[in-house]
């Protein structure tokens, strides 16, 4: 592999936490990422990672689901509830439900063991690229407030305000998909366009999970959506008019 530079966040090398109890796997992941210019810290337990997170905020956490002191799904929940970093789930579990649950809780993507290191790096780079594009202040003059169907999204803080004035902060993955919809309303968008990834596997459920989460937030009846329509065989369509300020 030929090392290439990481996506810079704020001008510094992206910092990745590798949370994996298997020392050999953790070493392989950390060494591979360092070859590509990323800074890494390795933790062999959820407790150690949670203790470090408030002290040094990473740009991305790679979380193994089979940790010795806490189920990885619970760790993903705690990380996404309290921090804004990206989360890549690393799992040897064969059950789709575990991966879907991790995405439901705010994970950005997942890699199944055994994995190809090139795929791992590609997924890390994709998450960090999306984070960089969504980060406030990255593009001067970027439109910030989007209004649609009584809702408002503050793109700088990922804060969604309902027609009743209630506010909730979206996870990065949800906010990115919603932002794509708001930038291109009344257009059929493919799963690849929405997630920003080429050659997406037909079995990849990540975009479907994010659409489901957005529908639960935005739709009066998520089972019969009016704002985010499924166009079978093509993708999804956002039906509301959008104004930016």
Can you describe this structure in just a few lines?
By secondary structure, the protein is an alpha/beta fold. The protein contains eight helices and 13 strands.
Q: Any idea of the CATH class of the largest domain?
A: Alpha Beta
Q: What gross morphology would you assign?
A: elongated
Mean pLDDT figure: 82
Q: How much of the sequence is in beta strands?
A: 15-25%
Q: Unreliable runs, pLDDT <50, ≥5 residues?
A: 1-11, 136-142
Sheet with the most strands?
A: 5 strands, parallel
Order of helices and strands: EHEHEHEHEHEEEEHEHHEEE
Q: How do the strands line up in the largest sheet?
A: 2-1-3-4-5
- Based on secondary structure, the structural category is alpha/beta
CATH architect. name of the largest domain: 3-Layer(aba) Sandwich
CATH fold descriptor of the largest domain:
Rossmann fold
Helix tally equals: 8
Give me the CATH superfamily of the largest domain: Response regulator
Number of DSSP-assigned strands: 13
Cα separation of the termini? 44 Å
Question: Which radius of gyration do the C-alpha atoms yield?
Answer: 18 Å
Give the fraction of residues assigned to helices. Answer: 25-40%
Domain Response regulatory: 15-128
Keywords: DNA-binding, Phosphoprotein, Transcription, Transcription regulation, Two-component regulatory system
Modified residues (4-aspartylphosphate): 64
Organism: Sphaerotilus microaerophilus
Task: Tell me about this structure.
The strands form 3 sheets. This protein has a 5-stranded parallel sheet with strand order 2-1-3-4-5, sandwiched between helices. The protein is elongated and about 50 Å long. With 245 residues, the chain is of the alpha/beta class. The chain contains 8 helices and 13 strands. The N terminus is likely disordered. β3, α3 and β4 form a beta-alpha-beta unit. α6 crosses α8. The chain folds into 2 domains: 120 residues, 3-Layer(aba) Sandwich (Rossmann fold), CATH 3.40.50.2300; 100 residues, Arc Repressor Mutant, subunit A (Orthogonal Bundle). GO terms for molecular function: DNA binding.
């Amino acid at each position: 592999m030929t090392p290439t530079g990481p996506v810079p966040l704020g001008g510094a090398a992206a910092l990745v936490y590798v949370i994996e109890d298997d020392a050999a796997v953790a070493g392989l992941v950390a060494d591979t990422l360092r070859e590509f210019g990323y800074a890494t810290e390795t933790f062999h337990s959820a407790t150690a990672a949670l203790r470090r997170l408030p002290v040094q905020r990473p740009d991305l956490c790679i979380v193994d689901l089979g940790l010795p002191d806490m189920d990885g799904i619970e760790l993903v929940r705690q990380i996404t509830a309290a921090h804004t970093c990206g989360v890549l789930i690393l799992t040897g579990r064969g059950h789709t439900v575990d991966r879907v649950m991790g995405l439901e809780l705010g994970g950005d993507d997942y890699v199944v063991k055994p994995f190809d290191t090139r795929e791992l790096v590609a997924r890390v780079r994709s998450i960090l690229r999306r984070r960089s594009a969504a980060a406030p202040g990255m593009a001067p003059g970027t439109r910030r407030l989007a209004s649609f169907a009584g809702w408002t999204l503050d793109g700088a803080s990922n804060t969604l305000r309902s027609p009743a004035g209630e506010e909730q902060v979206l996870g990065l993955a949800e906010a990115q998909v919603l932002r794509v919809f708001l930038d291109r309303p009344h257009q059929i968008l493919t799963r690849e366009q929405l997630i920003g990834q080429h050659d997406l596997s037909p079995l990849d459920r990540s975009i479907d999970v994010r659409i489901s989460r957005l529908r639960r937030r935005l739709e009066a009846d998520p089972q019969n959506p009016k704002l985010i329509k499924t166009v079978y065989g093509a993708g999804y369509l956002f039906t509301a008019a959008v104004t930016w300020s």
